[in-house]
């Protein structure tokens, strides 16, 4: 039995779909979700749907009952260390034989504030004694392509990343890697540094959007403090604006770059190219 948490989210749902495509019987997949009704379509296909609310540990014991493998898709920043610990405890109690976790690339070396929760979660997993695999994901292309309407309207991508290279890949790429780990007998106690085959800069992203859309889009590189202030001016809560400004500051230092090739090796295919990601984003 394979349990996928956050199964109604963007990444978790893709993992479930990938497991089905790989031939895992639907009845041997558990789509664990805070709101099971949102997974009604998966239930209709025979997937087991179970409630799994990270803030209500009593739901987690039932969610992990009978699990042999599990994927913890990280929750949103906030209270996620405590939430993740509750999931780890439930998985350990259930005797899960493989526990995979979606962490962040270069988690053990980065200075990025966003990585702190991931580092703490990785530590909790190690301390639990569960056989684990850390799927350290770099940035999603969708973090940018999902904002294309605003990008085209403004004619600009704003940031503070300088010429830092980002090993971006699509959610589908990361989902395929997770599904591969869950369906093969690979090593445990390992961390995969996952990212796109070809790293990009935000200036290159802007140029590709310009080329494909016919609308001039430029990358405007701002000082970190000014970028943070700009994000707050767009209505982003101050702590979130600070978090994302810090991400860009660390992108400039190479924090979201990896050249391991782990993602394409695990998924068994080249990662999504910049051109394909932009094309998909413009069609969305």
From TrEMBL:
<dbReference type="Pfam" id="PF13460">
    <property type="entry name" value="NAD_binding_10"/>
</dbReference>
<keyword id="KW-0560">Oxidoreductase</keyword>
<dbReference type="InterPro" id="IPR016040">
    <property type="entry name" value="NAD(P)-bd_dom"/>
</dbReference>
<protein>
    <submittedName>
        <fullName>NAD(P)H dehydrogenase (Quinone)</fullName>
        <ecNumber>1.6.5.2</ecNumber>
    </submittedName>
</protein>
<feature type="domain" description="NAD(P)-binding">
    <location>
        <begin position="6"/>
        <end position="183"/>
    </location>
</feature>
<dbReference type="InterPro" id="IPR052718">
    <property type="entry name" value="NmrA-type_oxidoreductase"/>
</dbReference>
<dbReference type="InterPro" id="IPR036291">
    <property type="entry name" value="NAD(P)-bd_dom_sf"/>
</dbReference>
<dbReference type="GO" id="GO:0003955">
    <property type="term" value="F:NAD(P)H dehydrogenase (quinone) activity"/>
</dbReference>
